[in-house]
């Protein structure tokens, strides 16, 4: 069978950007920033995104397009030996992420509906509202299931018709709405404090944990270290420049996260909401700002709808990694793969859906959902990143260089290889050690 490819350059760019932009930017970035003290974290995050994120993404694109295979198959074809294990780490990480990602994405569906049923009002205490909802296990599972079903359906439709078409239409609208919210946010009375917290760094509080959190956020937000960009890369037609694509996707991803922060922190400081409030941060701050706007209900509904879609384009990427694997390597049909794997992710996600107040379920001293997030983002994804860069830098250097130069010479090829060989894997490793307290 002919391998599926992206239909157009812009289609691929938007799909890859759609995978990158998701809850990671609008939900995770603000809450992790809040939990890690604000501006210093943001600065470290940006440094990591450009020094490690872009090179790792390029490495994944190169592995994907030169092999035209899924994450496990790519390593098998290009080298074999133990290398396919790297693809497996990715598949496992993808499952774990999808499992709790769908819980949070389910919240966006709930909030979309609630926009019209009493959430948006100056009399509502948004913290209480959030806590009541998330401790209702049945509702959480219900919305999680709906989200996974929709994801399965789009993946089942296939790469081009499903993922590409939707991403193309909807991502620009999300950015526009965020811009509008930024204008509202920065004109709130708490804006100066919020912006100070967000942009005025205080390095005395930076620890190894902060840097590891920034690294984990970079991998999560850019969809790196788990084979997603290898898989998407495998569908890229030859005439698209890989270095340019890596840069554009990263840039847009960062822009969206940055904008979200400009809405959340001014709002938090205006309404006395703790910026370190945790996973609920955007679900608590945003309804407060909508309540202040004319037609607040409609803005709120529109916003959560778009966030839902952003989450969907990312969840599709998460599921596509394992679907591509069983399709390529085990000859499963796309339909069977999407259904079986999607259902599995749903089941693994149930404890996460219940861990926000329904039952008390802790792991490593964190709520189950947070523990899953920590394990995948801060441990598995960086681990994947170390191996992908080592693989490109040492094992398939010539193939990779040829691949990224197909559409014209890449000026920074030497530095890129050097980063893949040493700087990226070593710094990821050191950050990792510092983050878990061993350095
Ligand atoms: N990057 C996505 C986000 O920010 C999450 C994701 C991670 C998607 C890994 C695919 C693979 O929401």
Automatic annotation (TrEMBL):
- Is Membrane included in the keywords of this UniProt record? yes
- Give a GO molecular function annotation for the protein: symporter activity
Tell me the superkingdom of the source: Archaea
Location (main, coarse): membrane
* Membrane topology, as annotated: Multi-pass membrane protein
> Entry's InterPro entries?
Na/ntran_symport, SNS_sf, YocR/YhdH-like
Query: Its GO CC terms?
Result: membrane
What name has this protein been given in UniProt?
Answer: Transporter
Q: Which organism is it from?
A: Candidatus Methanofastidiosum methylothiophilum
């Amino acid at each position: 069978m002919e391998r599926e490819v992206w239909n157009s350059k812009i289609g691929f760019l938007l799909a890859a950007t759609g995978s990158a932009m998701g809850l990671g930017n609008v939900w995770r970035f603000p809450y992790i920033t809040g939990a890690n003290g604000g501006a210093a974290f943001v600065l470290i995050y940006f440094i990591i995104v450009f020094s490690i994120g872009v090179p790792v993404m390029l490495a994944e694109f190169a592995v994907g397009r030169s092999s035209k295979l899924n994450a496990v198959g790519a390593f098998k074809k290009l080298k074999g030996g133990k290398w396919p294990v790297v693809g497996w780490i990715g598949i496992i990480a993808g499952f774990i992420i999808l499992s709790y990602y769908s819980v949070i994405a389910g919240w966006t569906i709930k909030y979309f509906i609630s926009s019209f049923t009493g959430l948006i009002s100056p009399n509502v205490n948004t913290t209480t509202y959030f806590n009541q909802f998330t401790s209702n296990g049945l509702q959480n599972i219900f919305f999680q299931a709906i989200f996974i079903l929709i994801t399965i359906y789009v993946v089942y439709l296939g790469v081009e018709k499903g993922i590409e078409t939707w991403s193309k239409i909807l991502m620009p609208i999300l950015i526009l709405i965020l811009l509008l919210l930024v204008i509202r946010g920065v004109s709130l009375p708490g804006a100066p404090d919020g912006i100070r917290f967000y942009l005025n760094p205080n390095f005395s509080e930076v620890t190894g944990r902060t840097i590891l959190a920034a690294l984990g956020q970079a991998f999560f937000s850019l969809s790196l270290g788990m084979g997603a960009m290898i898989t998407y890369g495998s569908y890229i037609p030859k005439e698209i420049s890989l270095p340019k694509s890596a840069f554009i996707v990263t840039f847009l991803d960062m822009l969206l996260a940055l904008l979200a922060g400009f809405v959340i922190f001014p709002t938090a400081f205006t309404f006395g909401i703790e910026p370190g409030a945790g996973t609920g941060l955007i679900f608590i701050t945003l309804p407060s700002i909508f309540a202040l706007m004319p037609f607040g209900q409609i803005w709120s509904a529109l916003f959560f709808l778009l966030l839902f879609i952003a989450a969907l384009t990312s969840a599709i990427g998460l599921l596509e990694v394992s679907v591509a694997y069983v399709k390529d390597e085990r000859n499963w049909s796309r339909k069977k793969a999407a259904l079986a794997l999607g259902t599995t992710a749903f089941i693994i996600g149930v404890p996460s859906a219940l861990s926000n107040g329904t039952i008390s379920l802790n792991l490593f001293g964190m709520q189950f959902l947070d523990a899953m997030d920590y394990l995948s983002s801060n441990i598995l994804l960086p681990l994947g990143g170390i191996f992908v860069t080592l693989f490109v830098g040492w094992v398939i250097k010539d193939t990779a260089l040829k691949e990224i130069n197909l559409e014209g010479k890449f000026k920074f090829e030497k530095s890129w290889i050097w980063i893949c060989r040493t700087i990226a894997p070593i710094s990821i490793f050191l950050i990792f050690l510092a983050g878990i307290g061993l350095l």
